[in-house]
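Example for tutorial group B:
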């Protein structure tokens, strides 16, 4: 359990660092020049993907992907199918409602549900890294420090890989 939490925290730190670097690089580029028009992959005609971050939210105590979450899964699968090889990181999280062990198990069910949905939508299973952190990292503050719906989520990070 301890090893899984450490691996999950390392994976989350890597995903956050990747997003932060992408954001900073994008800000620096915008400060010096106007944004370039959207590009397309010449080989496929699809969108060129550098990186993207998505969140799929869940109801309290549930690992069922709602309609909006299903749309996000389909969007991720489309972008990967049309944008070339990519690495996908899926990290399950919970709010602080319930016990810590129950929340770790729930975050695992959420992460696995999203992974399974991505695979069913055509994303290669070998390109998906899946982990979970329970209530370990609260990304949104709540008045009672427990019940912010934005903490009941799975973070999906997609980073384009070289061909």
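The residue assignment follows.
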């Amino acid at each position: 359990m301890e090893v899984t939490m450490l691996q999950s925290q390392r994976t989350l730190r890597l995903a956050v660092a990747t997003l932060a670097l992408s954001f900073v690089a994008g800000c620096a580029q915008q400060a010096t020049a106007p944004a370039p028009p959207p590009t397309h992959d010449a080989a496929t005609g699809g969108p060129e993907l550098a990186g993207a971050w998505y969140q799929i939210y869940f109801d309290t105590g549930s690992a069922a992907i709602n309609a909006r979450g299903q749309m996000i899964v389909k969007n991720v699968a489309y972008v990967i199918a049309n944008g070339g090889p990519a690495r996908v990181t899926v990290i399950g999280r919970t709010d602080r409602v319930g016990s810590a062990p129950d929340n770790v198990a729930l975050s695992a069910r959420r992460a696995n549900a999203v992974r399974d949905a991505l695979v069913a939508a055509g994303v290669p299973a070998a390109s998906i890294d899946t982990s979970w952190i329970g209530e370990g990292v609260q990304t949104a503050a709540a008045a009672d420090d427990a019940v912010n719906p934005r903490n009941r989520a799975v973070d999906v990070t997609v980073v384009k890989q070289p061909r």
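The helical segments are 2-32, 67-83, 100-120. Compare this with the pattern of hydrophobic and polar residues in the output above.
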